[in-house]
């Protein structure tokens, strides 16, 4: 079991090789819950996440003979990049096993850092099984992503920085996957600040820590889809679970839509890119899952920023639609010259900007004298969208608001572990 002294030793060991990341206040986001918001920007690390702290601490403790054998790790991305980057700098050969549906940016970056990448399995757990097999067969040292005292101690260095950066903190909210991050932070903070409240956040898709606490033992959850693939771990670690049970006050779970909204808010109001796992703490605070935050100093750990750009684009578009800043309408118009011009004139009068327009003749249910026009519009809010629809209908057009009539458009990507 790691100790506070282990964390202090880890800080000295990795000093100068990883960033002491800033922890700064955000008035715009604090206003949303009536408190004082603080963000610890681990997405600014060289590999884009906190994971390199623990990875480097573990690598630096390898014996010379272990370095020659090389290392193997399993990860959906962030741990992989941390191990690959620092192993490369230390001259240690690294093999990284990643789930087959790991976001392309994480696979590409891991290879760019010099590691051999093996894609195997549907999720983190299957990738880990392959990593353990390779460790046994090839004689490599397994670098576990969370259930290792050296890894936990490395992640705990964030806690030491928080003590110095935000001494007035009342609540610290941390994403939870395998539990290494929150275990390390909680160990430090509860040792030095017993009164601080520590809250762990998981995705409702795979809340392994929460379900384990409820059951009084570690449980294994089935695979699931989530935009927070970095915390999608089906079973929490043995060491991390013991530390969480000892030091973490609350565990909560958030919905996918709450995470997506938090990603967009961080991008727009904090001007920072956060992956789904990193946005989970803000999602929990704004969603009312964390109690008694009004007037409090609430620190949220932004664990990483390695989000797939295609997923980010989908989150942005969904957020714009939800806020009424983008609308998708389908309109039936007569199939004759000038009909399209008449339609766009109505849109112009209403101040709608056309982003895309698709002119369809072969749609089922249309008369031969009709065409269907699918529109993507830039709008100013939900009331503006309603006014546009009303104006079109007043001119005799049949209009379908696709955003109002369609069901939830899934954002999820494959589960894994960062």
Q: How many helices does DSSP assign?
A: 17
Number of domains in the coordinates?
A: 3
**Portion of residues within helices:** 40-55%
Overall form = elongated
Write down the Rg. 24 Å
Structural class: alpha/beta
> Mean of residue pLDDT?
93
Do you know the CATH architecture of the largest domain?
A: 3-Layer(aba) Sandwich
From the N-terminal CA to the C-terminal CA, the straight-line distance is 22 Å
Number of strands: 14
Low-confidence stretches: 406-418
> Which CATH first-tier class of the largest domain would you pick?
Alpha Beta
Topology:
Elements: H1 4-14, E1 23-26, H2 27-31, E2 36-41, H3 51-59, H4 64-69, E3 71-74, H5 78-90, E4 94-98, H6 104-112, E5 116-119, H7 124-138, E6 141-142, H8 149-165, E7 171-175, H9 180-192, E8 197-203, H10 208-215, H11 238-247, E9 250-254, H12 256-269, H13 276-286, E10 297-302, H14 309-322, E11 326-334, H15 339-349, E12 353-360, E13 370-378, H16 382-394, E14 398-401, H17 402-405
Parallel strand pairs: 2-10, 3-4, 3-6, 4-5, 7-8, 7-10, 8-9
Antiparallel strand pairs: 1-2, 11-13, 11-14, 12-13
Can you walk through the features of this model?
The protein is of the alpha/beta class and 418 residues long. It has 3 domains: 4-48 and 148-307, Rossmann fold (3-Layer(aba) Sandwich), CATH 3.40.50.1100; 51-142, Rossmann fold, CATH 3.40.50; 323-405, Alpha-Beta Plaits (2-Layer Sandwich), CATH 3.30.70. 44% of the residues lie in helices and 19% in strands. The strands form 3 sheets. The protein has a 6-stranded mixed sheet, with helices on both faces. It has a 4-stranded parallel sheet with strand order 5-4-3-6, sandwiched between helices. Strands 12-13-11-14 form a 4-stranded antiparallel sheet. It is elongated and about 80 Å long. It has 17 helices and 14 strands.
